[in-house]
Write a structure and sequence with these properties.
The complex is a heterodimer of chains A (255) and B (317). The radius of gyration of chain A is 20 Å and the shape is globular. Chain A has 255 residues and is an all-alpha fold. Chain A is 80% helix and 0% strand. Chain A has one domain. Chain B has 317 residues and is of the alpha/beta class. Chain B has 2 domains: 220 residues, 3-Layer(aba) Sandwich (Rossmann fold); 61 residues, 2-Layer Sandwich (Alpha-Beta Plaits), CATH 3.30.70. Chain B has 9 helices and 14 strands. In chain B, the strands form 3 sheets. Chain B has a 6-stranded mixed β-sheet, with helices on both faces. Chain B has a 4-stranded antiparallel β-sheet with strand order 2-1-4-5. A 4-stranded antiparallel β-sheet of chain B has the order 12-13-11-14, with helices on one face. In chain B, helix 2 packs across helix 3. Classes of the chains: A mainly alpha (255), B alpha/beta (317). Chains A and B meet through helix 1 and helix 5 of A and helix 2 of B.
Chain lengths: 255, 317
């Protein structure tokens, strides 16, 4: 466990010093501040618009960070050849992979926390009370991002940075529409399309399970049990993806 | 750590590695390699670029997997990652996490071994001192020069006080002072009872410090040379350097056996025949030229290297 911790802390330290982290964080801050402008321009409850836009920003920027850092997991390490020194130490490959995963998850946690605090402050300025219910949306968003991170890891164990990025982004997008895809398929008579959409529905992550944004913003009822169930789903899916990544990574040549 | 003196530090048996080069074709990188590196020796692993030196090291360290064959460190399978706890590895042109400082990097690599915090701190300080980077310990590695990175490379390789050091082109990227430091570090390792194998395509580096050397060409082991043996061979080379007017060589019948080189008003003669060399000396004295040096040098490993690689070339050609 000590070695995994060492890798995790090192990864965290390296990634929060990287410029890309700050540029994306800056982008997130600008986005959230932009929601103020937007709320003035739009008809409706400005607080709802800020919340809606803010939560969306956290989700999008967090996912972008997960993809950027996740795809670099193996490929960038190999490109920069930092991996040779690490793996020549008495360290199992799975320890390296899990350590990196925890380190990057920690980086994302910091990013999500910074953006969330900013959003809380902004909401507080409009209505002086802490909008704790936003956490019902933010915590599932975090789990969604680390799930996407695991997917990026998986692709990076066998593919180049660019392709991994493309694949992961596609999974993120399709992951939000699998349910729609399935219902569309149901209305057609095309058996092949139905089978295809069924496969997508069951194999790809259903990221809508983790999307509580709209319900939180419009104060629709959410039970803790429901959220917990979503988180268990995310944890289970993430674990399976990581196990597949380890399976591939253990067997490949590090050239 | 189970150190058995006299046993093989590294035992390589029937090692084979092929790489796919697309369309189902495979090229052989390492071909049936058998090699023993003895305990407490400095072993030079010579070969041209692309001969398979780095591949051999990566196979030893489990970075890539062999098609066939085995590697053992003191009879323990190298494939088991736990057996890397007494090994230090310096890759060719090492790269490190660029946003970490020198001290943080070494501390990080130390934490991948079972070391307590006190020992870790002490080792990091010792290593920074050993490679002469104490002054730069708080500098991020992205600001380091090639030579400084190479020094960090050797420091991380020795952070666990390894019994065996595997160094891939340790002298590359170093200035003359750095090369000398690296040689001293390697020689010191032998004094401390460690075993060192290092690869190089620069022959003089190997000649200066190795106990034995092997020559690898196109993935095949050509020859293993004992450095001490070279003194006993018949073909020592005698070399005479003199200065002055042009030398009249008409009196020496076997002139054909002498290599003659002229630079400015200097003459350099070399031959493997000691008697002939002595007669040349007399002639130089008679003709009143200034003698600058006269001596024998051991058969050069370069000669051995070129010979064995040439044989290879002819076989293939």
């Amino acid at each position: 466990m000590g070695k995994i911790m060492a890798i995790a802390l090192n990864t965290f330290r390296e990634s929060i010093r990287d410029r890309i982290f700050y540029s994306l964080l800056f982008f997130a801050v600008v986005l959230i501040l932009f929601s103020m402008v937007l709320s003035n321009l739009t008809i409706g409850d400005p607080l709802k618009i800020i919340k809606d836009f803010g939560l969306g920003s956290i989700s999008i920027v967090g996912t972008l960070i997960a993809i950027f850092v996740g795809i670099g997991m193996v490929y960038k390490e190999m490109e920069k050849r930092t991996i040779f020194v690490i793996l020549s130490k008495p360290l199992a490959r799975w320890q390296f992979l899990i350590g990196k995963y925890f380190g990057l998850s920690l980086t994302i946690l910091v990013e999500v926390a910074v953006m969330s605090i900013l959003l809380f402050v902004l909401c507080f300025l409009y209505v002086p009370q802490v909008p704790w219910n936003l956490l019902y949306a933010i915590i599932p968003i975090f789990f969604e991002i680390v799930l996407i991170l695991a997917v990026a890891f998986l692709f990076s164990t066998f593919s180049t940075s660019f392709l991994s990025g493309m694949f992961t982004l596609s999974i993120f997008i399709i992951g939000h529409f699998t349910r729609d895809l399935k219902s569309i398929a149901q209305t057609t008579q095309d058996a092949v399309f139905q089978a295809f959409s069924n496969v997508l529905y069951y194999v790809l992550p259903n990221l809508e399970y983790l999307n509580y944004k709209t319900r939180v913003v419009h104060h629709l009822g959410i039970t803790i049990f429901e959220v917990m169930l979503s988180l268990v789903y995310a944890i289970f899916y993430t674990t399976v993806v990581l196990l597949i990544a380890i399976f591939i990574f253990q067997r490949r040549d590090i050239n | 750590m189970g150190n058995v003196t006299g046993s093989a530090a590294i035992k390589i048996r029937a090692l084979q590695k092929t790489f796919s080069n697309g369309w189902g074709k495979r090229s052989v990188i390492i071909k049936n390699l058998n090699l023993d590196i003895m305990d407490n020796e400095i072993f030079g692993y010579l070969g041209a670029n692309g001969a398979g030196k780095t591949t051999t090291f990566k196979l030893m360290l489990g970075l890539i997997f062999p098609d066939k064959g085995d590697v053992f460190f003191w009879e323990k399978p190298a494939a088991d990652y736990k057996n890397r706890s007494f090994i230090g590895y310096l890759p060719e042109n090492p790269y490190f996490y660029s946003y970490l400082t020198a001290e943080e990097s070494l501390d990080f690599y130390a934490s991948l071994f079972d070391m307590n915090t006190t020992v870790k701190k002490q080792r990091v300080a010792e290593m920074l001192h050993l490679v002469g980077l104490n002054h730069a310990k708080d500098l991020q590695l992205r600001k380091f020069s090639r030579g400084m990175l190479q020094r960090i490379g050797i420091a991380q390789a020795m952070i666990n006080d390894p019994k065996l050091l595997i160094l891939d082109e340790p002298m590359s990227g170093l200035d003359p002072m750095g090369r000398k430091d690296m040689r001293d570090i390697i020689l010191n390792c032998r004094d401390q009872g460690k075993t060192v194998i290092f690869s190089s395509h620069i022959i003089s580096d190997v000649e200066l410090i190795c106990d034995r050397a092997s020559i690898l060409s196109k993935g095949e082991l050509k020859q293993v040379v004992e450095m001490d043996d070279r003194q006993n061979t018949e073909d020592s080379i005698w070399e005479i350097i003199c200065q002055g007017n042009a030398l009249d060589i008409s009196t020496i019948k076997e002139y054909g056996k002498i290599k003659h080189l002229v630079t400015g008003n200097r003459n350099i003669f070399s031959t493997t025949d000691k008697g002939l060399a002595n007669r040349m000396m007399d002639e130089i004295k008679n003709q009143g030229l200034d003698l600058i040096s006269f001596g024998s040098r051991r058969k050069n490993i370069e000669d051995i290297y070129i010979k064995s690689v040439n044989v290879e070339g002819k076989n293939h050609g």
